From TrEMBL:
Location of the protein in the cell: Nucleus, Nuclear pore complex
One GO process term, biological-process aspect: mRNA export from nucleus
Main localization, broad class: nucleus
InterPro entries assigned to the protein according to its UniProt record, in alphabetical order: Nucleoporin_Nup85 (IPR011502)
Keywords per UniProt: Membrane, mRNA transport, Nuclear pore complex, Nucleus, Protein transport, Translocation, Transport
Pfam families: Nucleopor_Nup85 (PF07575)
UniProt protein name: Nuclear pore complex protein Nup85
Organism per entry: Rhododendron simsii
Amino acid sequence: MPGLTSDLGETSDVPFSSEVGPVVYPLRHGLKPPIAARFSISWSRGNSLRVSGFQSEADDSEVVRGKVVEVKLGSGDGEIDHSQWRRIAYGSVSPFALLQSRKNSMVAVSKMSAVSSPYDAEWSDYVMEYSREIGFLLGGHKLSLSVGIVDTKTVLKKVEEPTCLKAAWELMVIFYADHKSQAWTPEQLVDWLADYDSLLSGTQPTVHSKLVNFQKELASLQAIEDDDNYWEAISSVLAVGWLDVAVKMLRLHGSYQLNQVGSREIENGLVEAVAVLISKMPRMRLELAPGKLGEYFGTKPDFIKAWEKWRGQISKLDCSAFWVQCDHRQTREGLKNLLQIMLGNANILSSVTCHWMELHVSYLLHIRPFTMGLENMKNLAQKCMQFKPVSCPHKLMTLLLGILGENTEVVLAECSRSFGPWMVVHAAELLAAGNTQAEILLHEERHNLGGISMEELHRLVYAQVLSSHALTWQIGPIYLASCTKQGMALLKILLYKQPMHHNQILLKNIEICRLYELHKVSSKMMKIAGVHHWKHGKKGSGVFWLQQARDEIRLSRIAQQLFDFVGKSISDESFKQWEGLIELLGSESRIAGGLEFLHKYRDFKRSLQQVHDGIATNRAQKAAESLILLMKNPSTPQRFWLPLLYDSLKLLNWQEHPLLNVSQTNLLLNKLQELSIGKAMPFFCLSLLPLNALSSSRLLLFEVVSFSFIVEKLCT
């Protein structure tokens, strides 16, 4: 099982109990008792259950009979709300996608150049850039221990509480991503505890909680140096390396007051000497943050030289004769205690720290500043756990133990259990950065997982979480596309499950298909949308999406339906109703003569309308020519002949002169004769025209042919 070591005995890095008790979730339904034993439970979005409770029958009809609530499953502590989680989810997409793109490019280049591994210095820079972007996204202002505060009675600034997610991410960066600072890992761990020690206060006492409690009492103290809690607080913050806080608290000593400087000169000198020694403490690191005390050294020889000199100054002060002249007992004992802490007295360090992580940091700072490697740090951590055991370890402690134990499975399991799938997916990139063992573990294909790797499994799980919510499903494809085995198949399923009748969602789906070259999926979705719109009365939208999908079969069927409908009722109002759809369909769909005829008929109707509006004779002549072309065209169905002639009665009866010659008129008479014969046929389609339409057209044509014959004779 991922996350569990093979040995679950006393030597296990992570405490594990096989006895898992039932988890109880509160159900805040707001119903008044009695409540009936009728409940309906179903899955909701993500990892939530939808619970419907029904109240017992009551005489009062105004009483609420039931309630539907959602119960979120999981072990989250609620420090990050839903909107913040969505902001993190969307913000992490760009760094993740950029890193994947760079990884693919470097792997391709390494294959071409026969380089064994892409994890070189350039890749480390990419991973660090990725970790910084994610860290900035997680936010969570760190605990401020700055001394630049106007109020002398204030030790800690009131800032926004940090989050466990940011703290866990920083731990992963320190031990896995920041390879250039591995020589200063102990100092980084000291800074990490200074930033996030407040998070551990929820499960056990901490130096931070001790400092907060003392700050509450600070305003009521008259002689602060007489209070034992004052010296205990200074000892604790000095032990864990909060040098600026220790110096500031020392200078709250009563001997610094103007009315007491003269009478307590020796006492004040001792306090100031200890404060100066604290502020000059050597630190093996590249640089110090602004406002932080100490002297930093980037190389080990320089640090050792400064360390020995500084320790010599402490020993010299410890043996000074001025201690005998210090009359204030608490000051003398408190300052002596601080000197012993700086000299690395293990017993005092153990007594002034609250849990094993603080003791671990104090050892790294005051006793073993040259501790290097995870194995040595793990051994030191186990030793500190013996001195400072915890009954209920914080999830950050468990994560740190997994990291120090170099157990990738434990780290992944703890990230998944405590911080969710987002953390696992994005932290996996840090785990595999330069760690061959972790890379093999993450990328190895496993038969028990269906042939996919652990990395792909966690990405699929996270993509499923994103896809289950209406506000985050759009970024699920980014993670599915990075899964080489099953990602694309699940991406297709995700796209097909989206409601195609919403144009915005459909456009988003089409864009996703374009990005991942899923052209067949895009075409099928547009077909689904087109059929849906057509069936629900949105004819234009239906035709548009079917045209985008190039679905000639369905477009031909629609054209046939349209053709049949117009043929049954070819009145002006009916044609206007479908004219826009005919225009949208175009002349590309060709069935039984196609819609090409309808387009010609549309042009004829427009010319005919101009004739009815009193346009000049040349317009009427063009309309007559259009009529003859339609009647000659073999694609013009027989059921349209009579409506065409009936609509053209004004053309046939043109007052100025005949618009048709004898041969054209005979053509029209022949068409009428065929219609008369066709009435007896079973396939004859009766148009919605007056009963005398046929006879009226025939009589008028006879008049036209007679008049045209006379005109032609006169002209010859």
